[in-house]
Amino acid sequence: MKVLLTGANGYIGIRLLYELLKQDHEVICAVRSAARLSVPQEIKDQIKIIEIDFLNLKPHQELPQNIDVAYYLIHSMSSSTESFDTMEAESAMNFVQLINSTSCKQIIYLSGIVNEDKLSKHLLSRKRVEDLLYTATAAVTVLRAGIIVGSGSSSFEIVRDLCEKLPLMITPKWVNTKTHPIAIRNVMSYLTGVLGRKDCYNNSYDIGGKDVLTYKEMMTRYAKMRKIKLYIITVPIMTPKLSSYWLYFVTSTSYKLAQNLVNSMAIEVVAQPNDLREKLGIQLYSYEEALDMAFAKIEQNQVASSWKDSMVSGRFKLNLNKYKQVPSYGCLKDAQQLKTDDPDAALERIWSIGGKNGYYYATFLWKTRGYVDKLMGGVGLRRGRTNANTIYAGDSLDFWRVLVADKKEKRLLLFAEMRVPGEAWLEFEIDEDDIIHQTATFRPRGIWGRLYWYSMLPFHYFIFAGMIRRIAKG
Asked: Can you give the CATH number for the domain in which 445 is found?
């Protein structure tokens, strides 16, 4: 089948792309930026990529005409704007407008479980998108999920951060809300299972795993599996705002995502029974099995995607392609170069920079900068990196965004998503003479930008000189 995959840069989208290719489907990925599709080149060679922003359609924008099925995986829950629901509705309407001009027979949408009378803004927005998709000429299949558990999922990472970092938790009463976690593998089975099935046309299905748990039970079961001592004390006085700040400072989530999660956590999210699992022959996994599979992928360094690599995890919601060309006019630079006797090993160290590997020199200063950034409302070092030594353009890397990761050309270009009075780049390149070029570029914004740069000069000299030495020599 010819399949259109929207939201292909997202946590679900990237994983679904791999599954569709395994099943020999012809896949067209619709993304805002082709350069940001975080998959290996051999995967890109197997697919067609079209650039389209469903919030800002270009005049005479079209989709390929001969589509069989379209996946709609576009969400704006973590947007910095307060009007994410309006954005989601507009995006859905534009999608319907374009898909109606194609031969698409089925639209598959991954939504949220919406069984309660009182819903959060996030879940109301998901329901509205469902209603808008049903106005399309193609048949619609809606899969409604709650908490998705898998390596790199926001839910898994939040529970992991809380349990690993806080042996004693003073928690708000929403930890006693019931939810219905489902393993990412089961989500993939449902998403691919309904593909092209006429008996699933114009139907909505709740999907959940084996267990209905409270958030507190999710954390205690995680702690038991990891052999961590965990004590949870529930109090009724923590406001949604305090809860959001608590999640933001303790976990790897952004503040906006924390806000939306807290608002949704007050709503019970339990799947209603249906016959879809039997129809598709899906074996459900328990919560503990989902955790086991997540850690197996992490330990094997095989995490296919992470929510932290999406643009909503950072500060900038703009097209980063225009930052690939590092400016020279009006910029301040720290340029270092050093010859290496082992360029292959040096390249591996460059490709492994950040995350748990750190920056090879003055790690405490990098951590301090991360804490300061987070206190200022930035991303800090909370995102780490998805895999220890594999990286693609579009990935997040601590408080950087990867713009170029060309191992063949031996060049890595990072753009800063930390809070700075200007724009910053960090570039590594190894030339034909085995000389490492390490360049920090800063384009200041006004006098405060220049003052910031010059105040940091002593640290830059110390940090950058040490870093390139360690990269070159090991």
From this structure: 3.30.530.20
Q: Which residues of 362-399 are buried (b: 16+ CB within 10 A; e: fewer)?
A: beeebeebbeebbeeebbbbbbbbbbbebbbbbbbbbb
User: Domain limits at 245?
Assistant: 2-303
Tell me whether residue 162 is in a domain.
yes
Q: Is 389 helix (H, G, I), strand (E, B) or coil?
A: coil
Task: List, for residues 153-208, the tens digit of each pLDDT value.
Answer: 777 878 888 888 888 888 878 788 899 999 999 999 999 999 999 999 999 999 99
Distance CA 146, CA 131 (A): 19
In-domain check, residue 366: yes
Last residue of a domain, one of 303, 334, 364: 303
Helix (H, G, I), strand (E, B) or coil at 143: strand
- Smallest Cα–Cα separation from 421: which of 457, 446, 456, 399? 446
Position 252 scores a pLDDT of 67
HSE (side-chain half, CA atoms, 13 Å) at 186 = 30
The pLDDT tens digits for 311-368 are 554 445 455 666 778 888 889 999 999 999 999 999 999 999 998 889 999 888 998 8
Query: Does one domain contain both 255 and 367?
Result: no
Place of tokens 């390596």: 151
Q: Is 444 exposed, middle or buried (0-12, 13-18, 19+ CB in 10 A)?
A: buried
Torsion sign over Cα 74, 75, 79, 81: positive
Claim to verify: residue 276 and residue 328 sit in the same structural domain:
no
Could you tell me if 285 and 168 lie in one domain? yes
For tokens 């027979």, name the residue: 105
pLDDT given for residue 308 in this prediction: 52
**Contact criterion met (CB below 8 Å) for 416 and 320:** no
Choose among 214, 231, 203, 208: nearest CA to 265.
Answer: 214
In a shared domain, residues 294 and 336: no
Please give the pLDDT value at position 150. Answer: 87
**Residue 348 pLDDT:** 95
Cα-based distances in Å from 11 to 15, 75, 262, 313, 386 = 7, 11, 20, 12, 11
